[in-house]
Structures are given as C-alpha cells and as structure tokens.
Amino acid sequence: ESVTRADRAAASNKPPIRLVFLNFGFGPSLEWYPDTSQAGRDYKLPAAMQSLARHRESFSVLSNLTNLQSTGTGSHWGSTTFLTGVDVRRTPGREFHNAISCDQVAAQHIGQDVRFPSLSLTGASGDLAGAGPGASLAWDAQGNPIQGISDHVALFSKLFGDGGLTIEQRRHLINQNRSVLDAVNADAKSVQRVVSANDERKVSEYFDLVRDIELNLARDEDWLERPKPDAPFGEPAESPLGSKGIELMFDLMVAALQTDSTRVITYRMPPDNLLNELATETGKGVTGAHRMTHSPRGTIGYEQLIWRDQKLCDFFATFLDKMKAVRESDGSTLLDNSLIVMGSSLRTGHRRENLPILFSVGGRGGVRQGQHVVYEQDKSTLCNLWFSMLKHSGCPVDHFSDGGHVLGEIFS
C-alpha cells in the first residue's frame, strides 16, 4: 500500500494513455478542408496541410462534425464550448452557464495518479481572438472557468522547480492556506442560513470551489516529499510571443507528458499573435484575424488567412515530430500512447457545421488512422469524438454532453 498506483503502473511497463486538446480561434480558410468526395485513405491533402504529409499515417481529418448544442453561443466563441458542447445560454434565469469540459472528466479518471491531474494552458482570450469567454479551454464540474497558464517561465517552474523552499517551508505554506480556508469556510456557512434562495445557489457554488481547493491542498501534501523530475532542458529566460511562444509551449507540453507529470493537457492557442510576424515578413499591413475569416478568395485577407492556417499545421507537424522522438519504457513512442486533437468550434465565416478537426494517435491499438472520415452532414456531433476518446482512455462514462456514440470509423 505504500506504493502508489502510479508506481505500480510504471512497474507494469505499460505506458499510460494521454489526452491533448489544441484549439485555435476563428475558422480556417477553405484550403484547410479536403474534398468531401475523397473519403478514405487516398484523399488529397489540402493546401494548408502540406507540412503534415510526413505524418500522414499518424493523423486523420474528420469532416462534418458539428458542435450541435453550442449553436446558441456567441458567433466568435470558438473556444468557450469546444470541450463542453453546450449552449451556455440555455439555463433559465442564468445569462451564462457552461458545463464540465471533456479534459476535466478525463482528469477525474486518468489523472489522479500523477502530480497534476491536468494542465490548462492558454495564449488567447476574449471574443476578438475568436476564443470567447473562459480563462482556458477547461471548465470545472460546476461550469466555472479554470485559469490557464500563459507564462512559459511559470509553467516550467510549476513542472520542475521548488521555488528554493525546503520541504518544511512548503508544508508550512500548505498548512497556512488550509487554516485560512477553514476560517472563511466557517463564515460562509453562517451566511448560507440567512441568504435568499438565489443567493444560496451562489453560496453553494462557492462551497464547491472550496472543496476543490481543499482537494488540491491535499494533493500538494501527498506529493510534497516526492521530488519533481529533472527538466529535459534549461529554464527559459523569458515568455516569448508568436511562433517562438507556441513552439516553447509545445516543448513544455512534451516535457510534462514525458516525465509523467500530467496525462491531460489543453492549450488555447494564440494564432492571432502570428499576424505580427506576417507583417514583418511581407512589410505590409495585415488584415485583422476577424476580417480574414470573412475575406473572399482572391483577396489579400484570404491569402493571409491561408498563411495562418499553414503555420498552424506547421506547428502541429513539429509537435508530432517531438512526440514521436520520445521513447517510452517499452520502446513505443510518446505519440503511440497519446490521443491528440487540434481544431476549432468555428468554421470559415463562424459557422458551426463541418468543424476543422485533426485527430492524431500513433501505434497504440484500437485506433484507425491515416484517413479522411466524412460523416453525414449535421448528423454527427463533435461530442461523439470526446465521448469516444474518454471511452478509449478507460473512463467509465456512458455519454458526454450530447455525445454517446463511439465513432467506429476511428475507434474499434
């Protein structure tokens, strides 16, 4: 019993499965999509995906998935409901109410044996980035936003640093936080006895958050005397923007998975920052990211949107390179044991049908790859993909949001 479940899993020499969710704001150009008449393995890679040719057998393009229940959300909210699949305005009497995101369901089941049940990373915020409300892609069990980490140095410190504190000093800080929490908790209970019914709901939400903090404090204490892993590279000197920022975030994600610090990661990407680089490259002004998605073919704005899409696929290809380069204890690669999605909840022109979805996994059994899967239009929900990934990861779920059907074209 003194050996943790994580240690026993490591001793079995079978690598754990990981889930990675990558999201970008606004929809891509039409050059992102393969011809829907070319279903199967012999489809022609579209113009935006040429850099992914070397990984053709390790990823699939999924066409005609629709985020069915999220159609009542804001037209620019490409991230808010990406992993929740709900209409955030459907709860009577509440202006905005989200639900738990897929990654947090996974964290409850496959993330409990590691130091961080999940990592929520971000680089984009707000409607103007095509992202929408939320502090990351992740939402807790009460539908509240989970704060995302955007600073690379802070993420490196979280994964590999100790802050220069001794174990005794860290234990003191944990106990100090718990004592403050106890005092506030007692005050809140006294308030609950005198508030209105509507306010009582808010107090109940507060208690849920308090319980989450208590669980996190308990986890911190459990892991207190277990040293953090050695970093596979040196601490970054700064937190860069643009391409360098995305590439460094991918490096840190690979390091987190490689050291088994976490098994679930979300990243709300900041592709709009790339437009500054395009302006530098061309020496010309750049159409804003929002206007690009409404620019017709043949215009400068549309050509710039294609450039952004190609950059996103370049990043994804490089990320797969890095995942393939890491060897596991049984000789497989990190990609072999990971399920990775990159996409958006918005299509070209902010529509929500036929969403841009790339799905990747390596050689682990039970998943068919290297194909273009074309679903019947408006008949298959994006949440069927999330449900399928949860089931494949061993999570005991019978549905997720409006998804309850395993995508048999991909998952056997």
Report on the architecture of this protein.
- This protein is an alpha/beta fold and 412 residues long.
- The protein has 10 helices and 9 strands.
- The chain has helices spanning 5-11, 102-110, 152-160, 167-192, 197-222, 242-258, 274-282, 289-292, 300-325, 382-392, and strands at 18-23, 59-63, 65-66, 119-122, 264-268, 338-343, 357-360, 372-374, 380-381.
- Strands 4-5-1-6-7-2-8 form a 7-stranded mixed sheet, sandwiched between helices. It has a two-stranded parallel sheet with strand order 3-9.
- α6 (242-258) runs parallel beside α9.
- The radius of gyration is 22 Å and the shape is globular.
- The mean pLDDT is 87.
List key phrases describing it:
alpha/beta, 9 strands, two-stranded parallel sheet, 412 residues, 10 helices, seven-stranded mixed sheet
Low-confidence stretches: none
Q: Biggest sheet: strands, sense, closure? A: 7 strands, mixed
Q: Could you spell the SSE succession in H and E letters? A: HEEEHEHHHHEHHHEEEEH
Report the strand count: 9
Sheet-strand content, in percent, reads: 5-15%
Mean pLDDT: 87
Secondary structure blueprint with pairings:
Elements: H1 5-11, E1 18-23, E2 59-63, E3 65-66, H2 102-110, E4 119-122, H3 152-160, H4 167-192, H5 197-222, H6 242-258, E5 264-268, H7 274-282, H8 289-292, H9 300-325, E6 338-343, E7 357-360, E8 372-374, E9 380-381, H10 382-392
Parallel strand pairs: 1-5, 1-6, 2-8, 3-9, 4-5
Antiparallel strand pairs: 2-7, 6-7
Helix pairs in contact: 3-6, 4-5, 6-9
